[in-house]
Amino acid sequence: QSETSDKSSAESDSEAEVEQVSVYRKLLATLKTSPESESEEEEDESESEEAGESETEMDSEGSQETGEAGGGEEDKNDVLDQEEATDTAEQTLAQEQADGGDTSCDPSHGVIEEFTDVKHESEFSLETNFMEEESGDCNADKRESTSSQACSEDPFKQHMDKELEEKEVEKMSTLPKTSSQSKWPRLGQLTFSSTLEKCKTLKADKEVDVKQLYLHKPLESTWPKVNKQFLSSANKPSDPSFTPLQRELFCIMNTYRDLFYPERNALTNGEEIRHAYCLHALNHVLKANAQVLSNNAKRRDQKPGTDNDDYRDQGLTRPKVLMIVPFRECALRIVHIFISLLEVNDKRKIDVSNKKRFKGEFGSDPEEKPPNLKRPEDYEAVFAGNIDDHFRIGVAILQKSMRLYAPFYSSDIIIASPLGMRTIIGAEGEKKRDFDFLSSIEILIIDQADIYLMQNWEHVLHLMKHINLLPRDSHGVDFSRVRMLNLNNWSKYHRQTLLFSALQDPQINSVFNKHCFNYVGQVAVRNVPLSGSISHVVVQLPHVFRRLEAENVTSVIDTRFQFFIDKVLPEYRDAIMSHTLIYVPSYFDYVRLRNYFKKEELNFTHICEYTKKAGVCRARRFFLKGEKQFLLFTERFHFYKRYTIKGIRNLIFYELPTYSHFYSEICNMMKATDNGVDATWTCTVLYSKYDAQKLAAVVGIDRTAQMLQSKKNVHLFVTGEN
Questions:
Q1: Can you give the pLDDT at residue 140?
Q2: How far apart are CA 708 and CA 688, in angstroms?
Q3: What angle in degrees, to the nearest 10, is found between the helix axes of 457-466 and 418-425?
Q4: Alpha-carbon torsion (588, 376, 23, 58), positive or negative
Q5: How far apart, in whole angstroms, are the C-alpha atoms of residue 537 and residue 719?
Q6: Mean pLDDT over the full length of the chain
Q7: Which end of the chain is more exposed for a tag (fewer CB within 10 A), N or C?
Q8: Which of 393, 424, 389 has its CA nearest to residue 408?
Q9: Which positions fall inside the UTP25 C-terminal domain (predicted)?
Q10: Virtual CA dihedral for 503, 509, 510, 516, nearest 10 degrees?
Q11: How many Å apart are CA 498 and CA 441, to the nearest integer?
Q12: Which residues does residue 314 pair with via DSSP β-bridges, in sequence order?
């Protein structure tokens, strides 16, 4: 369900086919399996349908999971009804919880019991340990405590010690935010917004001295070494530890403002960004834990009977940082960065509990992936390593040690996927559900948010609704140590949210605008694309952009469908308009169109993310040979498979693609046809005024302004500039 629930409700008149989590995970499992899938890529026309059928039977993805219509093959008319899930996602999740409760799923091994490390509980307890155990940091802490000025300037102390007043909280709940603009050398156009005070605009630091960043030991010495791989000789000697991008991002992170950065690229800056937010998260946790351990020692040494309220240094539950990432590989990389940042040198290795188990469950076998797969570079970067999307793991950090698989209530950091969070949070009415551990999250990091649009955005929304709520149980907390902000249920106003995405999207924007309440304010990067992905189209092709008029956002779905069947489809019904591919971003729109095409008895075939390999093979062959006039094609199939579809002569984008580079990729598939450029090729795109962001990413900001000001149903002809 990559679409929001209002889109879902608009589909009530179509078949009740909603995607299913277990089916979705099987889709992921196929991404790295069996080289025989390349027979599709070869598109060997002599391949028999029988071979395709046997290929499916051999396929490791199987069809035995609960909820999928069992085993029915497509009939000769290529009707693939049985491929879509028949249960709702909620029913599936409920079934999964009934079957396994707290389960972690590995696509190659099925559902396994979730492991948590209970052996090292006392060793990593914040309540029973003291700072003296690490004399180096203890002395550093004492030195720091003698300098009240140094303490008061530390951004961590400033942020966590700020005591809000009721009238300020009321302001944040009722008043609109004021905003201001600023341009930074590397990040570009920034929008600063805040409710409490007139928005202060930060200035980009030209240079950063690591010693002035208030990094906790040992990060001051380890960060330059760990980050060395991203630094070039162009870096100034006075700024040896950050890239220009990292410097500006960390400058914002370190002020504890919320941040939305929509230009994350898995190929270019993804790892650079990951290192920057890992530094910030670890710095926060080390400072928070050092404060608790230091106060433990002070409390122990104070005279009996002394009632001191100065030691409020904790939340209602221990987890402070929640990191949401799409795949296990991402969690593996994050943990490796943490370990590197904590190890001062080769002689001072840190003790990591359950490291071997972690590598086994989160690592990948390099031999799993067939070497002959040819996919775009960005695909290889996104789907590297272990791409299972159902996981969660607690990490506890105490001085020189790290504990992986810590129980959540004994963890400092939780790393999880949206699905991993969804299955433990559960749904209303379920007996076995838990979200108390999210009550005192101080930093929420959502990385690669665009991928969740391709997974299930509802899981992200579900998480946002359950974060920073008052816990239902006390979980053994010492209330005399709990900060007043947590007791007042004001945690959400102190939570910093860092949101990284590869694109601007209304659904991602909505989470940043509606679910982030940070009292310090927010910073969003808002650069506009100048050229657009249409400039990467290499085939000479007329692009016709057809505007549809909708009264509001919720009516767009129905308006687009009506516009398509009334105005666009009639022009393509003639047999001369054969080889027409219809690209559909939303699965719900795809189901609706497919049902309409069946009802009208049009000559069509279709491919979606649930179509089995034999079905895909057959659909591509029928389409290439012209035996089927139309091919309905979903965006998520393209995202997860990236097959080249041959034989396209006419393209219809039912809606603009989520990823702008998919536009040029799909258009460039036309050159894969053997007979070269054809003057009769066409490309038609449907858009409305609510598609401004997607439109700008495809055609550039200047053309977008012209198109949105033009009258309805204006045909704009543009040709790829290369």
A1: 43
A2: 8
A3: 50
A4: positive
A5: 8
A6: 80
A7: C
A8: 393
A9: 533-717
A10: 120
A11: 13
A12: 482
CA 36/CA 586 separation, integer angstroms: 29
Contact predicate 414/323, CB 8 Å:
yes
- Please state, in angstroms and rounded to a whole number, the distance separating the CA atoms of residues 318 and 489: 15
Contacts of 528 (CB under 8 A, 6+ apart): 189, 696, 701
Q: Does domain 155-300+312-366+378-525 have CATH number 1.20.970.10?
A: no
Domain ranges within the chain, ordered by starting residue = 155-300+312-366+378-525, 533-719
Fold assignment, 533-719: Rossmann fold (3.40.50)
Q: Where are the alpha helices (DSSP H) in 431-526?
A: 449-454, 457-466, 484-487, 491-494, 506-514
**In contact, 622 and 611? CB cutoff 8 Å:** no
Q: Which residues of 55-88 are buried (b: 16+ CB within 10 A; e: fewer)?
A: bbeebebebebebbeeeeebeeeeebebbbbebb
β-bridge mates for residue 351, sequence order: 401
Nearest to 156 by CA among 442, 417, 523: 442
Q: Report whether 275 contacts 246 (CB < 8 A).
A: yes
Instruction: Please tell me if the domain spanning 155-300+312-366+378-525 has the same topology as the one spanning 533-719.
Output: yes
Residue where the block lists tokens 């001062």: 344
Q: So what's the pLDDT on residue 37?
A: 42
Task: Determine if the peptide bond prior to 218 is cis (ω within 30°).
Answer: yes
**Residue tagged 């035996």 (tokens):** 627
Q: Residue type at 499? A: L
DSSP label at residue 338: H
Sign of the Cα pseudo-torsion (217, 220, 224, 230, in order)? positive
- Contact criterion met (CB below 8 Å) for 478 and 356: no
CA pseudo-torsion sign 245, 247, 250, 255: negative
Looking at residue 529, the DSSP 8-state letter turns out to be -
Cα angle 468, 473, 478 (rounded to 5 degrees) comes to 90
Token output for 658? 């989520």
Give the DSSP per-residue string, 179-240: EEEEEETTTEEEEEEESSSSPPPP---SS--GGGTTPPTTHHHHHHHHGGGG--TTS-TTS-
User: Residue 227's pLDDT band (boundaries 50, 70, 90)?
Assistant: very high
Could you tell me the two tokens for 148? Answer: 């009240």
Q: What is the pLDDT of residues 575-631, one digit of tens each?
A: 778 899 999 999 999 999 999 999 999 999 999 999 999 999 999 999 999 999 999
Q: How many residues does the chain have?
A: 722
Task: Please report which residue ranges of 626-717 form alpha helices under DSSP H.
Answer: 635-641, 660-668, 692-699, 701-709
Contact 322, 443 (CB under 8 A): yes
User: In one letter, which amino acid is 530?
Assistant: L
pLDDT in tens, 82-140: 334 333 333 434 443 333 333 333 433 334 457 777 777 777 777 667 664 443 444 44
CA distance 251 to 141: 24
DSSP 482: B
